[in-house]
Specification:
The complex is a heterodimer of chains A (208) and B (134).
Chain A: H1 2-21, H2 28-53, H3 63-66, H4 69-94, H5 98-128, H6 137-170, H7 174-207
Helix pairs in contact in A: 2-6, 2-7, 4-5, 4-7, 5-6, 6-7
Chain B: H1 2-20, H2 27-49, H3 56-77, H4 89-117, H5 125-130
Classes of the chains: A mainly alpha (208), B mainly alpha (134).
Chain lengths: 208, 134
């Protein structure tokens, strides 16, 4: 019986090896995806908070008084442009084109900077109007949600600059490709979150 | 040796596709995704800024519906989600997350709005007006 078992497992062993060989991943991409999903939960909680507090104006300004939808539309387009330029950087990377990758990454970073800059300008403007986070529940949840997203984009830009240096130093080695793919997921994920922000916070907010 | 390494390369290349999971697009797929996103972004902004629909509920429904469609577009064309990437684990993690997100958001709204109706009477404006407190 034992003998039979041993021989059976011995003959099966290569089969196991083959099925394992079918997905020889180092797990980074899946791990990073799971990180993004956990980040998604953070944003979900912030959206839920805004959903609860978003109408508590405390006799203060409402979204219709504060938000300039033209500015939000420009901001949205900045992020959308940066998404497709990052896509072009990935296409250049797959072709092994170092200069092209760097160029598209720089353009993506500039769109990202424009996005953060416009958001800071908006915050500054709101602050000037007295619409600070301390003013009402609506503004507390607004600043928390939108600034968390903006902070993510800012860190994405820092990461992007880091990878520009790395690619400049070492070229498109497998490690850098992997890092660029992770940042790609991160960047596109932030654009997905922004869809929720402009729809729920700005558009539904102004609609009242 | 060379045939062996070629065969191995082929195999590895195939596996690599699976391993990368989510990053192989083409110029056309990025362009299609971008154009769809622009349209799906422009419509809700237009609806709100021009006040196209009379009903607020209908406008809100359109905004949310188009947002969901745009998120799906981004998932497919930019994040390259499909049921096969990472042997299906990407999709499984996503579905799990969506379930948790749905529970967290709908549950929070449900509970908190019910709590609002159970607030102390003086917190209700109509009570303030009719009651003896004001």
């Amino acid at each position: 019986m034992t003998m039979a078992n041993t021989t059976a497992s011995q003959t099966e062993a290569p089969v196991f090896y083959m099925t394992e060989e079918h997905h020889p991943q180092n797990g980074t991409m899946l791990g990073f995806w799971i990180y993004l999903m956990s980040d998604c939960l953070i944003f979900a909680i912030l959206f839920a908070t805004h959903g609860v507090l978003g109408r508590n104006y405390a006799a203060g300004p409402s979204p219709a008084d504060l938000f300039d939808l033209d500015l939000v539309a420009i901001n949205t387009s900045m992020l959308l442009f940066s998404s497709i330029t990052y896509g072009f950087a990935m296409l250049a990377m797959e072709k092994g084109n170092v200069k092209g990758t760097q160029l598209w990454l720089v353009i993506t970073g500039l769109f990202g900077l424009a996005f953060v800059g416009l958001e800071l300008y908006e915050f500054h403007h709101l602050w000037h109007l007295g619409a600070t986070p301390m003013r009402s529940g609506f503004l507390s949840s607004f600043y928390t949600l939108v600034a968390t997203h903006g902070l993510h984009v800012s860190f994405g830009i820092i990461w992007l600059i880091t990878l520009l240096v790395q690619v400049g130093k070492h070229g498109l080695v497998p490690e850098n490709k992997r890092r660029l793919m992770c940042l790609s997921l991160f960047w596109h994920f932030l654009d997905v979150v922004w869809i929720g922000v402009f729809s729920v916070v700005y558009l539904l907010g102004v609609l009242g | 040796m060379s045939t062996h390494s070629h065969a191995h390369d082929d195999h590895a290349g195939h596996d690599h596709d699976h391993g990368d999971g989510a990053s192989h697009g083409t110029f056309n797929s990025y362009l299609i995704g971008f154009i769809l996103s622009v349209i799906l972004t422009a419509i809700p902004f237009w609806l709100v800024m021009e006040g196209v629909l009379d009903s607020k509920v209908a406008t809100a429904a359109w905004i949310m519906g188009l947002a969901v469609v745009q998120i799906v577009v981004h998932m497919i064309y930019f994040l390259h989600m499909n049921s096969k990437s990472e042997g299906g684990w990407n999709m499984l993690a996503l579905i799990f997350t969506l379930v948790i997100v749905a529970i967290a958001i709908s549950g929070s709204l449900w509970v908190m709005y019910h709590l609002n109706t159970n607030m102390m009477p003086q917190m209700h404006p109509e009570m303030l007006r009719s009651g003896g407190l004001g």
